[in-house]
Amino acid sequence: MEKALVRMGNIHTWFGKVHALKAVNIKIWPGEIVGLVGDNGAGKSTLIKILAGVIRKDKGEIYWNEKKVDISSVDDSRKLGIETLFQEQSIIGILSIMRNVFLGREKVKSWGPMKILDNKNMGEESMKLIGQLGLNIASPNQEVRFCSGGEQQGVALSRAMYFKAKLVILDEPCRALGVKGVEQVSNFVKELRNKKIAVIFITHNLYNVYPVASRFVVLSRGEKTFDVQKKNTSFNELQVMMAKIPSRNNLLS
Amino acid sequence: MGATRDGVMLFFVEKIAWFLAILFYVIFAVLRPTGMLRWGTLVFIIYSAVPLGFIVLAESICLISGNFDLSVGMMTGFIGMVAGVIIISWLPDTIPAPLTILLPLILGLGCGALNGSLVGFLGLNPFLATLGTSMVFLGGKLLIHPHPIYGTDLPKIYTMIGNNEVISLSVFIATLIVLWFVLRSTRFGAHLYALGAGPKTASMLGINKGRMYFFVYLIAGFFCGMSALFYTGFLFAISPYTATEALFPAFAAAVIGGISLKGGRGSVVNIFAGLILLAVVEAGLSMFAVSPFLREIVFGCLVIAAIIINRLRDSVRDRILRPV
Predict the structure, then answer these.
(1) What is the pLDDT of residues B223-278, one digit of tens each?
(2) Using an 8 Å Cβ cutoff, are A246 and A223 in contact?
């Protein structure tokens, strides 16, 4: 049997008195697209921030390829092969496309005893990646703030492609995007699927993720309430599940 | 056709500080050709700006990283005085004369490490932290030695470096070239701009913010140490008031040179232009024996004008660079 790429078991997190995640279990298989959906405040972002190394869990285990791992920083997460696009913070507007793609992992070449930035190589590689994502941008030196919202997500995503991530986490990638941007993001996700990169797509808007995901996980009030393959569910059922509140929290029932 | 015009326009707005520096020089040269047009005057204008120039570089690197350093002036004065006191009274005749040159540089690294630890490792607000250390440096200096130290009491080689036009200018220009290279072509430079422009994103992408900030202040401290050495030679003395008022011109030159206070922008070439512009105006005003009060007013207006020009420049730049 194939090994799960990531397994998060019995994850708990408290923010002060708020129990933000309650015994959440989630598995991600290699190359699959998972829609992580739920209402605002359901704990979606908290869960993936643990995986991305931004916040620490209070309880629970994380397994990467069935080996227990300790993710305590973004660096740890990246070293495993996890690339995270945080809402609206994945790019730096006044830097060029090239600098954004290689941010923090710039390519260098030797120049005598020194290592200097290899701008030519980084420029060519960024253009290739941009092309693969179907974006039409003239120069790798263009500042990212001049790109459309969809294109900006593409620039951030090309990092995952270049550095051969195994898992990409998209945190509300369609927020603040127009119709065209949403379509572009869907295309990017398909491109990642073609490259056998697993994706966790977080959104509270089922319309954005339903066409591309193959499995859905619903969180509600910090609990996992539904985990289903797309073929075994429907859009309507998922919507109902997203609106549902875990029963023991529901004082009216 | 439109493309070439845009290209020329872009070049003009990017290098506006240079054009302004030349403009001011021409104005003063027309008004007083006998003084201003001499080669010696031109060299002296730049030479006299070297000690301040190092402070400008210190402030600029902090600003590019998205931080402030309000202590640069006081730190320079403190370093100069402490180095002088060590040489003449704490450790007289113990340090070989050529090695005394290293003293202000080491002190600079120490003071920079202090600021860097407060901002980088303790995460204190740079504005308040450096305001605090600035007061510490001022008080510390006056507590240790509230009187001038004269150049004649110092080792000859110690004062010669800042007192010699050729040495001063070559060291300063070499420093500019090294800094230009580091900011433009190394990982450190790329990370510096990235942190200044988007600290959150940059640190999420694995750039170690605390450590980078520490190094930024460490380098700034080193530049202040250089400045202290050059001030001592230039003035042929260490005054308790050396560089106490250097903070404002340091900011002014950086801003005129197109550095954004929001961080992430600025080039060494333009910072140098900002410094030259300031030095030309300073020289022109002294040549006309303008009242020191009027001088303050002129510099104040210059900075405000620079901010307005920067804003105009950014909008022109955006208009040209925005793809259609």
Answers:
(1) 999 999 999 999 999 999 999 989 999 999 999 898 988 889 999 999 999 999 99
(2) yes
Using CA atoms, how far apart are residues B234 and B162, in angstroms rounded to an integer?
A: 5
Q: Which pair of tokens denotes residue A108?
A: 């260098």
Question: Residues of B with CB below 8 A from A93's CB?
Answer: 197-198
- Cβ proximity of A203 and A218 under 8 Å: no
| CB within 8 Å of chain A, chain B residues 167-186 | 185-186
B324 touches chain A (CB under 8 A): no
The whole-model pTM stands at 0.90
Residue A168 DSSP SS3: strand
**Nearest CB to A74; choose among B194, B204, B323:** B204
Contact B158, B87 (CB under 8 A): yes
The reply to whether B317 touches chain A by the CB within 8 Å rule is: no
The pairing of beta strand A167-171 with beta strand A82-85: parallel
Name the token pair of B205. Answer: 């992408």
Cα B38 from Cα B36, distance rounded (Å): 6
> CB under 8 Å to A48, separation ≥6 — which residues?
A36, A84, A169, A171, A200, A202
Interface test with B, best of A103, A135, A157 (most B CBs within 10 A): A103
ipTM field: 0.87
Tokens of A55: 């916040």
How far is the C-alpha of A137 from the C-alpha of A134, rounded, in Å? 9
Q: Which of A54, A99, A143 sits opposite B190 (nearest CB)?
A: A99
B109 within 8 A of B141, measured Cβ to Cβ: no
Which residues between 206 and 245 in chain B have a beta carbon less than 8 angstroms from any beta carbon of chain A?
206-207
